[in-house]
């Protein structure tokens, strides 16, 4: 029977190609997922263990499973002195030892500034970064800088640089910074400090200064690295170690690194990606099931003849399963080869290296076994229904005409299960939406203490509804296509034929449409959720800020502010001096304010989105917000005058060297989030600064952004404004534009990834459309020949197949878009209601593009079947049918 099965496969090879392509794509996806995970694991492990440099052993923290606060404090507050480095160096076999300390530093050379990460010096083979020019620091205020930072600061080996602590304001020449000599330039070949852009090496006295202690022995140390020979007395080393420490060799450290990554890192990524691989295979299974149903229908006479000569039902059943297994195996093998080839090309291209990942192709047994096993399994499962149909063929059917059209109705059990899923899912989703609504109105609900549970209920409910609709597609999708087809049939003979043909096999049409429906629904859900997130967060941020973009800093210069104000996309700006002052509230609380000087209220009106009617800013008035920026509490001033005093938090005193005091009449307007560093931002007459009553300790630039009118993106505006202040380390750029850009960048990145993954399922579904059309043409050989014989032209026959393909793709696609939009709205409501009023957009552009691509792909899919339909002369086709 096996040889007969292979011969039947060879005869039907062309029909098996689309199903094989579907399996190939799914298997390639799964293989690539494992390869990507392997590459990522390998890169991260090498990067993580590269921090050990040439160490043979290292000391790790070894706390009990449930440590007390005291035990944790003791383990993580150890200093260099606790490791007794001098005594360890005297042990036979210890060739080198280095305490592991680190800190953030600020570097300054004239008007050039930079921040960076720094580690302490030690033996060359124990340093995770290499010195490529000059020498490593030894002592006496020496530093080796990353090459790019040295270039940024215009420094060379032998130059002097000011070093200050990373958590304090840098002030050249003050007690907060000291001069150090640059002894070398460093490189980070293993990307140990890729996140920090490399690491500087500090001499021990500089590391002590950067950590704010007098001696290096007082610096907090997390571990020590050792260079040992094979005869080292490790027991002697262990006796010198502090409590909760464990000495491990390099092999053990590498093993622990692998465990930590698999537990907390790339396994999550692998599972996430594999879920889309499984989805691709599920869609492929629908395509495969269609293929085998028609194969069995076409072979009814052959199967009947086999029964006549003695073949048992079980043999026919096994024959179909074997055919599916062979097809699944061959296509999966090709898919694995394709996945390996794609990943090898990706690693060789350098694309992953540009992201900081040292990528290399890493094979594992999962790359081969899982895609092949899953591909074979899904193919065999998809063929079970066809195998049962094969066993129903009787010997007498060998003498009957072949009837390929499957007119069976969907089963009652399927309808009941689908109805239960839809009703249960709708109830679950409705309950979660109701709970969220109740919570928003301020009433008690499950959302308050069990938000995660309510969110999972809504997700589960939508999933149940979606699964129910997929199961019941055999009932409603053919009816939907029949209704749309009746309208399309009015367009002419070709459309009429297409409408009639698409109704002949409702089960296959439903399976093909369901495959496309899955992919389109998921893409539409993600697109709608992303669009809703952008609009909702944009509106929420706009309501929390009264100014589009704010630049603030102590070292902002007039030239920088002018350059920023002239940036394309900035439609208005106000540059003002600032200082820090305090006042006393009606309730006795002290209010810390950033006081800014402006020429008039009209200047603020150019950039501020707030009601400033009736506001005057002159020598006798001060403009204050209505709410505290930090707490959101209402600010009340029930007096005719308030007193503003220079704050001790200011960077400098006033011009007279004494506290400045202003008595002004308060005015209030509901403007928000000018700066989140202070309780409030107040505006006074700029003359107080120009006349010398107050000394500016900083400057602030308020900007109105109109990116659309300027034809630029928000990201471009933000980047260019930040670039204008790049020479100043103390200037920060904030506001809704900055936060919105961060949100949109993150959302766009996630959306691109998810849509790209789901596009695989859509691609397979479109292969299914081509498969359905091809099988339909084979079934209708006699019918097509008859139509040609009675006068239908080749062009009309091609158009009928094109219309049929468009009906399949667009009806399923539109249904998927509507479902996806609904699910996207529900998801957005459940997530973003916590942040503001949720937007419920319909992504016309994205959905239109997706339907357009589906339509074009469907037309392309109809080309090959149409060519086959018109290539055979009517007389020959009638004779063959």
Automatic annotation (TrEMBL):
Membrane topology term: Multi-pass membrane protein
Superkingdom of origin organism: Bacteria
TM ranges: 15-36, 271-296, 316-349, 361-384, 412-434, 454-477, 483-502, 509-527, 750-778, 801-826, 846-864
Location of the protein in the cell: Cell membrane
Keyword tRNA processing: no
Keyword Chaperone: no
Pfam families: FtsX, MacB_PCD
Span of domain ABC3 transporter permease C-terminal: 275-392, 757-874
Residue intervals of the MacB-like periplasmic core domain: 21-241
Keywords: Cell membrane, Membrane, Transmembrane, Transmembrane helix
Family to which this protein belongs: Belongs to the ABC-4 integral membrane protein family.
Protein name: FtsX-like permease family protein
The species this protein was found in: Bifidobacterium colobi
């Amino acid at each position: 029977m096996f040889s007969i099965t292979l011969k039947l496969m060879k005869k039907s090879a062309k029909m098996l190609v689309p199903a094989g392509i579907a399996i190939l794509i799914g298997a390639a996806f799964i293989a690539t997922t494992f390869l990507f995970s392997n590459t990522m694991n390998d890169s991260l492990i090498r990067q993580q263990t590269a921090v050990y440099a040439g160490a043979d052993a290292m000391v790790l923290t070894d706390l009990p499973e449930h440590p007390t606060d005291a035990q944790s404090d003791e383990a993580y507050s150890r200093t260099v002195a606790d490791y007794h480095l001098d005594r360890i160096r005297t042990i036979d076999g210890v060739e080198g030892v280095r305490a592991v300390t680190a800190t953030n530093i600020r570097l300054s050379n004239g008007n050039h500034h930079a921040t960076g990460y720094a580690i302490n010096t030690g033996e060359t083979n124990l340093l995770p970064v290499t010195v490529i020019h000059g020498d490593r620091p030894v002592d006496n205020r020496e530093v080796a800088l990353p090459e790019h930072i040295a270039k940024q600061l215009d420094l060379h080996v032998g130059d002097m640089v000011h070093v200050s602590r990373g958590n304090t304001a840098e002030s050249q020449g003050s007690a907060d910074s000291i001069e150090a000599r640059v002894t070398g330039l460093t490189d980070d070949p293993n990307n140990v400090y890729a996140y920090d852009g490399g690491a500087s090496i500090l001499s021990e006295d500089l590391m002590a200064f950067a950590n704010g202690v007098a001696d290096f022995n007082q610096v907090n140390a997390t571990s020590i690295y050792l260079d040992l020979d094979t005869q080292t007395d490790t027991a002697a080393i262990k006796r010198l170690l502090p409590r909760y420490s464990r000495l491990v060799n390099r092999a053990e450290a590498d093993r622990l690194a692998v465990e930590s990554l698999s537990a907390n890192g790339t396994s999550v990524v692998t599972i996430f990606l594999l879920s889309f691989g499984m989805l691709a295979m599920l869609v492929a299974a629908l395509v495969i099931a269609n293929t085998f149903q028609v194969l069995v229908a076409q072979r009814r006479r052959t199967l009947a003849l086999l029964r006549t000569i003695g073949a048992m039902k079980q043999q026919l059943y096994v024959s179909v399963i074997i055919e599916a297994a062979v097809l699944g195996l061959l296509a999966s093998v090709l898919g694995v080869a394709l996945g390996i080839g794609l990943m090898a090309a990706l690693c060789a291209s350098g694309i992953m290296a540009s992201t900081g990942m040292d990528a290399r192709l890493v094979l594992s047994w999962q790359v081969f076994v899982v895609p092949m096993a899953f591909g074979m399994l899904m193919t065999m499962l998809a063929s079970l229904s066809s195998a049962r149909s094969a066993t129903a063929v009787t010997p007498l059917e060998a003498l009957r005409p072949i009837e390929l059209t499957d007119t069976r109705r969907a089963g009652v059990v399927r309808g009941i299960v689908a109805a239960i899923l839809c009703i249960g899912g709708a109830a679950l989703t409705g309950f979660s939406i109701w709970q969220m609504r109740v919570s928003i109105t301020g009433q008690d609900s499950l959302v308050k203490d069990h938000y995660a549970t309510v969110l999972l209920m809504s997700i589960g409910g939508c999933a149940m509804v979606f699964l129910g609709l997929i199961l019941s597609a055999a009932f409603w999708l053919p009816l939907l296509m029949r209704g749309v087809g009746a309208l399309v049939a009015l367009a002419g003979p070709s459309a009429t034929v297409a409408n009639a043909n698409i109704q002949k096999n409702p089960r296959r049409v439903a399976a093909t449409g369901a495959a496309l429906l899955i992919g389109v629904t998921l893409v539409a859900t993600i697109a709608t959720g992303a669009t809703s997130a952008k609009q909702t967060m944009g509106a929420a941020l706009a309501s929390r800020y009264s100014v589009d973009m704010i630049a603030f800093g102590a070292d902002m210069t007039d030239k920088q502010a002018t350059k920023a104000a002239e940036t394309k996309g900035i439609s208005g700006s106000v540059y003002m001096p600032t200082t820090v002052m305090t006042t006393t509230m009606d309730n006795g609380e002290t209010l810390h304010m950033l006081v800014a000087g402006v020429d008039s209220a009209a200047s603020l009106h150019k950039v501020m989105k707030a009601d400033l009617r009736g506001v005057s800013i002159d020598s006798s008035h001060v403009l204050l917000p209505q709410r505290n920026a930090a707490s959101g509490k209402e600010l009340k001033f029930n007096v005719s005058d308030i007193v503003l005093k220079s704050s001790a938090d200011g960077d400098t005193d006033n011009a007279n060297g004494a506290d400045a005091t202003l008595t002004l009449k308060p005015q209030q307007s509901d403007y928000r989030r000018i700066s989140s560093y202070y309780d409030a931002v107040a505006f006074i007459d700029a003359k107080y600064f120009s006349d010398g009553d107050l000394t500016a300790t900083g400057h602030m630039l308020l900007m109105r952004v109109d990116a659309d009118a300027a034809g630029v993106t928000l990201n471009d505006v933000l980047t260019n404004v930040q670039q204008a202040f790049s020479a100043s380390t103390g200037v920060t750029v904030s506001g809704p534009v900055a936060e919105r850009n961060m949100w949109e960048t993150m959302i766009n990145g996630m959306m691109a990834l998810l849509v790209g993954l789901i596009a695989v399922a859509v691609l397979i579904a479109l292969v299914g459309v081509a498969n359905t059309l091809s099988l339909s043409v084979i079934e209708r050989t006699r019918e097509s020949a008859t139509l040609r014989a009675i006068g239908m032209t080749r062009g009309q026959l091609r158009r009928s197949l094109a219309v049929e393909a468009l009906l399949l793709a667009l009806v399923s696609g539109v249904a998927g878009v509507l479902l996806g939009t609904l699910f996207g709205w529900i998801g957005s409501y459940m997530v973003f209601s916590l942040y503001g009023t949720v937007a419920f957009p319909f992504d016309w552009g994205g959905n239109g593009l997706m339907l357009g691509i589906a339509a074009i792909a469907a037309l392309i899919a109809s080309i090959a079947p149409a060519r086959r339909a018109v290539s055979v002369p009517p007389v020959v086709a009638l004779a063959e049918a």
